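Action item from last week, closing it out:
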Amino acid sequence: MKIVDHKTFMAMPPDTLFSKWRPCCFDELTIKGDSISCDFFAQDIASAIEPFGLESLSETCDRSAETGEQISIDLECQGRDGCFDDEQMFAVWEAADVVKLIERLQKCLPEETP
């Protein structure tokens, strides 16, 4: 992982894994999309809720909390960052870091039952 400034981050390609960073604090793990002018597209990972139609996000989550209903995720739905903060720093994951994350996530898969 490395910490980069806004200008360096904006030049990075789509599918860069990152968190916004300020000293001693990392925000949500996010996947970068295309850069546009002084902004960029991004896909949040922890809050990657599939479009919920006529319901609000809070209604969908509240229903799941009450009933245990599964909430589908969508890891292909990007939005604009829209913060326009040239002073923002970014913690960018390098390829070896992503490989370690994938290996760790593999351990989260339930064991198949015979």
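Closing note: The CA atoms of residues 50 and 74 lie 5 Å apart.
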